[in-house]
Amino acid sequence: MTARLAGGLFSGTKDPAGLGSIAHAPAGEGMYNLIQMLTKILPRFISICLRCLLFIPVLAWQAGLAPAADLDFFKGGDIAAMLREMPPAPKALTPLPALEPLAAQPLRNWTVMVYMSGKNDLVFSLRDDMNEMEEAGSTGNMNVVAQLGHMGTTDRPWPVSRVFVQKDQYPNYISSQALEKRDNADMGDWRELADFIKWSKTNFPARKYMLIISGHGSGWWAYGRPSAVKGISFDDQSGRHISTQGLRLALEQGGGVDVYASDACLMQMTEVAYEIRKSAKFIVGSEEAGPAFGYQYKDFLLKAASTPDPSPRELAAAAVEAYVRSYIDGTGAYHRDVTHSYLDASRLDGLIPLLDEWTAAAMKNKDKKAISRAIKEVKRFESSDYMDLVDFMSLAGGYARTPELRGASARLSGYLSDQVIGLNAVSGAANARAHGLSIWIPYAFKKTYEDLAFARDSRWDEFVATLVKHTYPN
Hints:
474 residues, alpha/beta, Rossmann fold, two-stranded antiparallel ribbon, 15 strands
């Protein structure tokens, strides 16, 4: 049953009518071609400028100096002199408790594994996340371990580190013990993720396990982005990422987890969840693009530790509640409109026959206008190919003229709300119609969609193919 948090999360609704349509200018017109050219050039120019600005704080961090926020990018002058003026890190940190030999680690109730893919423009946000983790730290009932990937420079690459997270008193410095450095391990390789899961289970055994992937995400594929941009955990050094199928393989080879969470944009999709359903009991994530700040790990870990032995469902709910609550209660840049939910993976197989019943009714074309209207008005997200599945069924059923489509829509929507989506929380009026699970309805069909388990097991790809005029290989 879908639950919603109190506190003004649904303060109104926003009609996104028209988001499903694209207007095309006549081919060959000079102004249209100019706009197309600028659309391609300007984002790349802005990206280059931003990366140049990011290079200055990278130098400061590598030198062991103050956080990037203390640098004045517009001050000018000698960069080396500016760096020398920055205050150094504390020379005498209070030592953390000595860690027992890895082979002697006791069995705890939970091990929370955080795979932090910061070899990109999220490097500073993930550094802050590590410091948030250290505000809570591991406890007698819960291990917290992380693999932190950094972005470096050509001559000074930063090693990827595996860390046992311990509570400390330094909000701006990472003082937890690095147990292993992995040179420049590829954070975009699913085999590296699988190895991290196995390493964590071997060295920090527990009765239950949670995996969080923190970094960039784009669902199974993102409209308006390069064809290679699909999946999660982007590594700018290698140019690779973990695909939806790669995520499944990593979880399978790692032996599965009780809770899987994406601290990344756009990942709470039917296609992604179905792919990993046999390797995670509960799946946590966001339908929408989220702030770069991501999880407020202190809030989540303290909430998780408040119960000595939470069940997997309770820990999944704690992740949802802590994430959304932190952005409701936050101020300034930390007060944002967000979405988050958890799914019961054991119920995803039951979705297929209900969805096939719906697609069979829809493809009879007796309610073509109802479906077209639903596609036009449905709640969509930053990637406009992604739409809320419950909202779509509600609209399609409401506009349907035939009892067949109305009934199929109601049964599917009810199953999603009562069985699949365990807890859905949102903030902001724009997200009032985000119910916790998105699905792909594109402007152009991608043949690689057929490689997904969801496409093989359901008829959704057949339905989608009837809606679009063009098919592309990637």
